[in-house]
Structures are given as structure tokens and as C-alpha cells.
Amino acid sequence: MKNPFNRARFALSAPRMGDMGPDVGRELAFVGRSNAGKSSAINALTNIGGLARTSRTPGRTQQLVVFTLDDEHRLVDLPGYGYAQVPMAVREHWGQEMERYFQHRGALVGLVLIMDSRHPLKDSDWQMLEACGQRGLPALCLLTKADKLSRSEQQSSLRQVRAALAEHGQRAAVRLFSATRPMDIDGLRAELAAWLYEGEPPA
Ligand SMILES: Nc1nc2c(ncn2[C@@H]2O[C@H](COP(=O)(O)OP(=O)(O)OP(=O)(O)O)[C@@H](O)[C@H]2O)c(=O)[nH]1
Ligand SMILES: [Mg+2]
Entry's InterPro entries (predicted)? Predict the structure, then answer.
């Protein structure tokens, strides 16, 4: 199967939403706690190693990083939230810029919320889901680093997250994911492509 994300190219890094380029077309944003694996997920999805910068140290991605697929379609890698080591002033700046981005970016059609499958649904993740819901944006939760769990632990993480979301009336879809081991990555690519190109959010 052809990978629709393999043509991704680095476009720009923006310290502010205003520097992101024209607000046209459609884009998906990758969000989540620091070190959860957002940038690694973009590399796995595109199958382009080193496209998005990753690091063992939290706080690697520090700007809104835009990857273009074509003139109309983009993926956006965002800095992680919830990292206490980042100075307060920087966190505040980021909080404001991210809020502005989530509230006002017309091209944003949905969020891919990356959570470590061993530590899902922290307070900051709930806040992100709520912000998303308020704007009526669909979200897909990827429970990543699933390679670090046994099969039964993976299933239990998936069940727990689905149950917690249902309990809170959150309609986000949930999938297991690993950047290092293929876990139905073609299925994920097809789902994300349908969302980005055809406007069909994951169910
Ligand atoms: N085993 C395993 N390690 C992963 C996986 N995804 C990411 N990692 C590792 O987790 C660390 C953080 O990954 P990043 O992709 O840089 O995380 P990020 O969410 O972009 O982090 P920030 O940009 O700092 O917010 C790196 O050491 C990755 O190699 C995965 O699926 N499995
Ligand atoms: Mg990153």
C-alpha cells in the first residue's frame, strides 16, 4: 500500500502561530505531554527517519513545526506540555501560543493526542481533550510506546482509556501505537488520510 504521508517535507518552525504561514487548507496537529512520542509518531507515520527531531530528553520540540504534504495539507508537530523543567516564563508563552493555535487556526481539522500507553489521560491530556471538544474538533488518541507493554497490558490500557473517555462523554477514538514496532500502521495511515483529505474523522 502506498504511504500517503511519505511525501511529507519540513516546511518551517514557528515560534508563534502568526509565523505559521497562511491559514488555508487542512492540517492535523500532534499534541501530548513532553516526551510522549509525538515527533517519533510523525517519523513512523511518514516513514522518514529524522524528519521530526526526537530526543530522550523531554522538551525537544520547542516551536510549532510544520510539515507539508502538498500545498493544501500539513502535519504539525507541537511542543509537549506538562514538562516541569521548562522555565515558567517559557511555559506561559507556550500555553498562550498553543491556546491561540487551538482556538483560532481555521486549517486545524483535528488533533492526534499522543499518550504513553503506560501513563495515559493525565490532567493536561483531559484539558487538551476538553479544549478540542469545545471547538468541535475530532481527536484520535494514540497510546504509544505499546512495545513496552505485554499484549494483555496493551489490551487493558486500551480498554481503560476507552472506558474513561466514555464515562466523561468524550468521543475520541483510541488506538494502540508504537514508533518502533509496526502495529497496524497501514490502518492508521488510511484512517489519518481519510480524516485529513476527505474530512472523515476516526470513529
Ligand atoms: N520504545 C519506544 N520508544 C519511543 C516510542 N516513541 C517514542 N519513543 C522514545 O521516547 C522519547 C521521546 O520521543 P519524542 O518523539 O522525541 O517525544 P515528543 O513527544 O516529541 O517529545 P517533546 O518534543 O519533548 O515534547 C525518545 O527517546 C523516543 O525514542 C515508542 O513507540 N516506543
Ligand atoms: Mg517532539
Answer: G_ENGB_dom, GTP-bd, GTP-bd_ribosome_bio_YsxC, P-loop_NTPase
The CATH number of whichever domain residue 90 belongs to comes to 3.40.50.300
Confidence (pLDDT) at 182: 87
22 CB-contact burial (10 Å; exposed 0-12 / middle 13-18 / buried 19+): exposed
- Which DSSP letter does residue 96 get? H
* Residue listed under C-alpha cell 493526542: 113
pLDDT of 76 above 80: yes
Angle between helices 38-46 and 185-198 (to 10 degrees): 90
Q: Which atom of ligand 1 is nearest to the CA of 80?
A: 25
pLDDT band at 147 (very low <50, low <70, confident <90, very high): very high
Q: What does the alpha-carbon distance between residue 113 and residue 181 come to, in Å, rounded to a whole number?
A: 19
Is residue 125 in some structural domain?
yes
Q: Residue 160 burial by CB count (10 A; 0-12/13-18/19+): exposed, middle or buried?
A: middle
Q: Which domain holds residue 91?
A: 9-198
pLDDT at 82: 76
Is 4 part of a structural domain of the chain?
no
Using CA positions, which residue lies closest to atom 2 of ligand 1? 145
Q: State how many domains the chain has.
A: 1
Give the pLDDT confidence of 43-61 residue by residue, as tens digits: 999 999 999 999 988 877 7
Ligand 1 site, residue 180, Cβ cutoff 6 A:
yes
